């Protein structure tokens, strides 16, 4: 038998990948809290420790309390004999937080929100303060220091100015530059690319330290002592620069939207302190499903994956199990209507009404006969997957909103679950009017492999940039377009726009393509793929049902024309009617 590794943490004792070889009661689960099992069986804390000690010979103890098996035995023996504990390890054991023995305990504790200063009501994927790490995603720990929210990534601490949980966008600024431009360590701003990406257009400032004196006056000059050199001159330049003749440099991203507020060195710290936006890349679609099933979101460090915490139910599920009435398909707390679609059909107690109201297909201009998972803006909410709402303008143009950006829909291909879209501001003018990178809601969409990127550079100096030079009517000068994904470099800002590979390959080399050709490339858009599993809806349609959405389970529902229940299909295999006539889901 391979000896399992045990970790005693502040939240209990975890044993990943232990099987029935250790205890039959654990059979069938992927991970367990052995302390919870022992605490349930033990009549006292002393007996719990004694039972724990019996396992120490077989288990390798790591982390947390740094107690050897001998120390554990000594501590347990002292407690069992009612003697005062005599070593620090034992005291530390006694001071441990209670392990989450009650299956409701982790459910309860992950119901806490992170609150600190103006950052309030924050939950998964973030954790910290009164939210233990099991309530959030690894690497997304928030700390609260004197009313200031702090997050650390890539060894740098950032002050969190704002968190929008709907879009998962954070506004952050470097802590080390909050009060003093002089630094002892020179570290560039680098995001953890597994967790974050830049959410809006930004520009870089390079702060140069320990530079040799120059004869000509240099703007944005400051004075700082630098270890390792007698030169104290420093400069701030727009763009990304290497140290060159200076001793060191750091690169700091700032919001391009606020670029005009940078006047000179006197307001540099204020300007940097306005921060820049990043988007969290953690997929929270499973968390939404969990919440809609009345669960709370957590993370299982034994299996390194999301887990849904449910009342009176062991962790490890993706949604909470329950028997749900027909009314369960309606989002909790919603009334009879909303501005973008009705919630309840007339006569909602009759399941046939759901079948009738979800029979409409969306048609607008060249986009025709589109059904689930999409709906029109005035169709009932339960007829589509949340977030997949199509709008038909008066000029018969179809649009969709993704992360607060409007896209024109050029095509929807249900067999491949892809759609072709283009930014609305690009359709109005060659240069993107909104200095914001193209960003998807990754819980709903992925980019298709058929795309490549073009980068628009704004406010560039007069340089020989190998790209198409543009004259834009949006007030920006020095605009260039290059193939691929580029940072702003020496320019003030950059905006990345996806295009189809078939149209974008080779574009931008040497400025050989004119703006008319660029218009054609941009207006063909790019492809994205929606991530919902279409099998449930296919099975429903094959059984003569119509697809809808169950907000209670956050899953596809099948509405049937002539049966007194709503189920996975209209074959009746997954639906049932109670003797009283109540209607139930059995997903």
Query: Rounded to an integer, what's the Rg over CA atoms?
Result: 29 Å
| Residue runs with pLDDT of under 50 for 5 or more positions | 1-46, 55-66, 79-87, 92-102, 323-328, 332-340, 342-349, 508-512, 573-587
Number of strands: 38
- Distance separating the two termini: 38 Å
Strand content: 25-35%
- Could you say which overall geometry the principal axes of the C-alpha atoms support? flat
Helix fraction? 10-25%
Keywords: Glycoprotein, Kinase, Signal, Transferase
Catalytic activity: L-seryl-[protein] + ATP = O-phospho-L-seryl-[protein] + ADP + H(+); L-threonyl-[protein] + ATP = O-phospho-L-threonyl-[protein] + ADP + H(+)
Subcellular location: Membrane
Pfam families: GUB_WAK_bind, WAK_assoc
Give a quick rundown of the structure:
The chain has 587 residues and is of the alpha+beta class. The chain is flat and about 90 Å long. It is a single-pass membrane protein.
Explain what the structure shows.
Keywords: Glycoprotein, Kinase, Signal, Transferase. InterPro entries: Bifun_inhib/LTP/seed_sf (IPR036312), WAK_assoc_C (IPR032872), WAK_GUB (IPR025287). One of its GO terms (molecular function) is protein serine/threonine kinase activity. With 587 residues, this protein is an alpha+beta fold. It has 4 domains: 5-101, no CATH class; 141-280, no CATH class; 323-361 and 533-587, no CATH class; 418-530, no CATH class. It contains 12 helices and 38 strands. Strands 24-25-26-27-28-34-29 form a 7-stranded mixed sheet. Strands 7-8-9-10-16-11 form a 6-stranded antiparallel sheet, with no helix packed on it. Strands 3-2-1-4 form a 4-stranded mixed sheet. β35 and β36 form a beta hairpin. α1 (34-41) crosses α2 (45-56) and α3 packs across α4 (88-95). The two termini are 38 Å apart.
């Amino acid at each position: 038998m391979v000896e399992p590794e045990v970790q005693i943490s502040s939240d209990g004792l975890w044993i990943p990948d232990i099987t029935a070889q250790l205890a039959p009661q654990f059979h069938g689960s992927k991970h367990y809290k052995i302390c919870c099992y022992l605490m349930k069986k033990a009549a006292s804390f002393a007996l719990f420790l004694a039972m724990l000690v019996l396992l120490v010979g077989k288990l390798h103890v790591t982390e947390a309390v740094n107690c050897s098996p001998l120390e554990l035995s000594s501590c347990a023996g002292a407690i069992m004999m009612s003697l005062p504990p005599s070593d620090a390890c034992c005291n530390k054991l006694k001071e441990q937080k209670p392990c989450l023995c009650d299956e409701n305990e982790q459910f309860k504790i992950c119901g806490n929100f992170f609150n600190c200063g103006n950052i309030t009501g924050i939950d998964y994927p973030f954790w910290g303060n009164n939210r233990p790490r099991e309530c959030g995603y690894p690497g997304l720990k928030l700390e609260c220091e004197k009313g200031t929210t702090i997050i650390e990534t890539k060894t740098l601490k950032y002050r969190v100015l704002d968190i929008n949980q709907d879009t998962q966008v954070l506004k952050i600024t470097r802590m080390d530059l909050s009060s003093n431009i002089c630094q002892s360590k020179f570290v560039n701003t680098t995001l953890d690319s597994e967790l974050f990406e830049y959410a809006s257009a930004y520009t870089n400032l390079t702060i140069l330290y320990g530079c040799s004196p120059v004869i000509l006056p240099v703007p944005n000059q400051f004075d700082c002592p630098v270890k390792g050199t007698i030169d104290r001159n420093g400069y701030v330049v727009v763009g990304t620069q290497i140290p060159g003749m200076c001793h060191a440099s750091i690169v700091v991203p700032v919001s391009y939207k606020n670029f005009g507020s940078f006047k000179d060195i006197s307001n540099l710290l204020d300007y940097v302190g306005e921060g820049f936006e990043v988007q969290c890349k953690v997929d929270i679609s499973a968390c939404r499903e969990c919440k809609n099933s009345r669960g709370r979101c957590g993370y299982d460090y034994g299996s390194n994956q999301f887990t849904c915490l449910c009342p009176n139910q062991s962790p490890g599920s993706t949604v909470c199990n329950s028997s749900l009435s027909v009314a369960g398909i309606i989002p909790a707390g919603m009334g009879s209507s909303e501005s973008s679609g009705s919630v309840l059909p007339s006569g909602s107690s009759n399941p046939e009404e759901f079948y009738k109201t979800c029979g409409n297909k969306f048609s607008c201009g060249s986009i025709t006969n589109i059904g689930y998972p999409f709906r029109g803006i005035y169709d009932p909410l339960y007829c589509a997957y949340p977030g997949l709402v199509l709008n038909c303008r008066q000029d018969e143009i179809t649009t969709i909103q993704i992360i607060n950006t409007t896209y024109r829909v050029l095509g929807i291909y249900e067999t491949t679950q892809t759609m072709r879209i283009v930014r609305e501001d690009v359709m109005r003018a060659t240069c993107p009017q909104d200095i914001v990178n193209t960003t998807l809601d990754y819980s709903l969409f992925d980019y298709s492999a058929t795309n490549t990127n073009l980068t628009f550079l704004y406010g560039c100096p007069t340089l020989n940039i190998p790209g198409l030079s543009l004259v834009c009517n949006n007030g920006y000068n020095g605009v260039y377009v290059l193939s691929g994904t580029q940072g702003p470099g020496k320019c003030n800002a950059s905006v990345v726009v996806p295009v189809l590979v078939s149209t974008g390959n080779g574009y931008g080399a040497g400025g050989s393509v004119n703006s008319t050709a660029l218009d054609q490339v941009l207006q063909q858009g790019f492809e994205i793929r929606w991530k919902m599993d279409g099998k449930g809806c296919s099975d429903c349609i094959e059984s003569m049902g119509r697809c809808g959405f169950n907000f209670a389970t956050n899953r596809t529902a099948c509405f049937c024309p002539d049966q007194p229940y709503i189920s996975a299909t209209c074959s009746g295999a997954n639906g049932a009617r109670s003797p009283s006539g109540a209607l139930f889901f059995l997903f």
